[in-house]
Amino acid sequence: MNGVRDTDYYTSGLGGxxxxxxxxxxxxxxxxxxxxxxxxxxxxxxxxxxxxxGPYFSSLQGGDYHVFPDGRVLMTGTHQLNDPVRGxxxxxxxxxxxxxxxxxxTRVHRxxxxxxxxxxxxxxxxFLCSGNVQWYDGQPVSVVFxxxxxxxxxxxxxxxxxxxxxxxxxxxxxxxxxxxxxxxRTLVGGYWRLAGSTDTIGVMRLMxxxxxxxxxxxxxxxxxGAFTNWIFPATNDILPLPDGRMIIVGNFxxxxxxxxxxxxxxxxxxxxxxEYFVGASCGNYSSPEVNYRYIAxxxxxxxxxxxxxxxxRGYNDGTTSYWPWEQGFVSRLYGLNVGVREHERFAFxxxxxxxNATTTIELQHLPSAATVSLRDxxxxxxxxxxxxxxxxxxxLQALSEGIYTLQFIxxxxxxxQEKLIVQP
Length: 424
Prior knowledge:
This protein has two domains: 19-333, 7 Propeller (Methylamine Dehydrogenase, Chain H), CATH 2.130.10; 348-422, Sandwich (Immunoglobulin-like), CATH 2.60.40.10. The chain is built from no helices and 38 strands. The chain has strands at 19-21, 27-30, 35-38, 57-67, 73-83, 88-97, 116-121, 127-131, 135-136, 139-140, 144-147, 161-162, 164-165, 171-172, 174-180, 186-194, 200-206, 221-222, 234-240, 246-251, 254-255, 258-259, 263-266, 280-282, 285-286, 291-292, 294-300, 306-313, 315-317, 321-322, 328-333, 348-351, 358-363, 370-375, 381-386, 391-395, 402-410, 413-422. The strands form 13 sheets. Strands 12, 15, 16 and 17 form a four-stranded antiparallel sheet that branches. A hairpin with a 5-residue loop joins β7 (116-121) and β8 (127-131).
């Protein structure tokens, strides 16, 4: 809570990449090549083997991964399989693993001509992918493409994004984040351009079929040489807000030509919000070898605050400048009144709360096209359920204990939300 290291949690080199919380306070963590599972105290979970210990898999270039509720893992990158009995021999880019870490021999593993670096699950169970890949499953794909729940390419999805040519004859296809939205659209952050254009883009919104959303003006970013030693100004992470706005963080010091130091609020139409993060900026993190100054991610906390993290020392919130020894690498932000106010005419009861196995929702009236979404402390959707009656029971047995946010959605918009505590 106060930023002091938790000495009860094992500090190790088991991984340094993406961390995904799972049930019973266990978690998954990415290494440079594979994924490991950790116990509640941070030590390695022996019930999930080292992936390379299995008989059919050899890791090469790591990518991204997705954890299913039962603990299975879908991993990307570029890796080698040697399973001639089932016909999987060679390099593969989308690979399935059981919840014990072994290669899942019941699944069809997929191939492309390059590494997939990002994968995100849509609410319907399909996946959005991106990476240095132009062909997948024998078909051409764009910078962002979609695969079915079984990993097969979805030919009906096509995005207008293309890579940035480099001086070595290749193209940079940099997607920092993919955020599927409840209404089927998608926010994409990174560094690329639209087909047929030379203008670079940091954020845009796509329609459910991958086409450009005409109601959103793509967001350009820029970064001066003094700001970062990264070549490309890019969005690293997007935090969608319930009212359609979003917070973006990354390697940039200007948004639409206006100063913003690695963090900015974007309105639902793509315009720059002039109320939040005016004058905000992170400071340099320097050593004899590097000069970094960027924010890698932003995570909401249950109490309404936000955590940012990245390579920086010192932070100016636009009002107060904090010295490098006060703030660095991880900071907590307060005072962002960006949540959703409860709809004045929407009344409901939620009981029991705290809950364990189930909780019940009672509505005064049933909104049109209503669903309820449950999000964990990291903002990830862990459950979605349609509301067809004024009284609905929500099953919680598959969830780990913790604080969740229950959102009521009507016609694609969040109309109310409530904290829900799940107990063992």
